[in-house]
TrEMBL record:
<protein>
    <submittedName>
        <fullName>Acetyltransferase</fullName>
    </submittedName>
</protein>
<dbReference type="Pfam" id="PF14602">
    <property type="entry name" value="Hexapep_2"/>
</dbReference>
<dbReference type="InterPro" id="IPR011004">
    <property type="entry name" value="Trimer_LpxA-like_sf"/>
</dbReference>
<dbReference type="GO" id="GO:0016740">
    <property type="term" value="F:transferase activity"/>
</dbReference>
<keyword id="KW-0808">Transferase</keyword>
<dbReference type="InterPro" id="IPR050179">
    <property type="entry name" value="Trans_hexapeptide_repeat"/>
</dbReference>
<dbReference type="InterPro" id="IPR001451">
    <property type="entry name" value="Hexapep"/>
</dbReference>
Length: 170
């Protein structure tokens, strides 16, 4: 089970309660910063924008590819370790709005993690150090360190031990 805080809502679906959850001006500011970062080719500038204006925790030499979309409402709940690669057009969510409730959760991505293009990471998920996430994966639960995962729904393709065995035989 993902680690999220759950908040029940009355009457209309939870998205109608959005600005009771987060400031309109925070969302506007985050939207502008994220759009600038999505298109800039300069990795250091992206990391600086994320750290300074969005309060994301981003490790040294981490790379966010073109079009990565961090959470627009709660980017401060995203941590990415050192020397990781977040692939093209990946979405990292720290919130989800449902009909009767909304959920908010930390997203922790470890050191030297590779996230393939077009993946979606849901709130409340931890991706362990050295993990590899295949392209177009829906990360809906924790990913063990050193493992290789993929698919929708995500499945473990190789454990850390199996990955180490494969590397020995190559």
């Amino acid at each position: 089970m993902r680690k999220t805080e759950r908040y029940q809502v009355e009457s209309a679906n939870s998205l109608w309660h959005i600005y009771k959850t987060v400031s309109f001006w925070k969302v506007v500011k985050n939207f502008i910063i994220i759009q600038i970062a999505r298109y800039t080719p300069f990795l250091r500038v992206k990391n600086w924008l994320y750290r300074v204006f969005l309060r994301m925790k981003v490790g040294e030499e981490t790379s966010f590819a073109l079009m990565v979309m961090p959470d627009i409402m709660f980017p401060e709940r995203i941590t990415v370790g050192a020397n990781s690669v977040i692939g093209y057009n990946t979405t990292i969510l720290a919130h989800e709005y449902l009909i009767k409730e909304y959920r908010i959760g930390e997203v922790t991505i470890g050191d030297e993690v590779l996230i393939g293009a077009n993946s979606t990471i849901l709130p409340g998920v931890t991706i362990g150090d050295g993990a590899v996430v295949s392209a177009a994966t829906l990360v809906h639960k924790d990913v063990p360190a050193g493992s290789f995962v993929g698919g929708n729904p995500m499945k473990i393709i190789y454990t850390k031990q199996q990955m180490e065995q494969r590397e020995k035989h190559e």
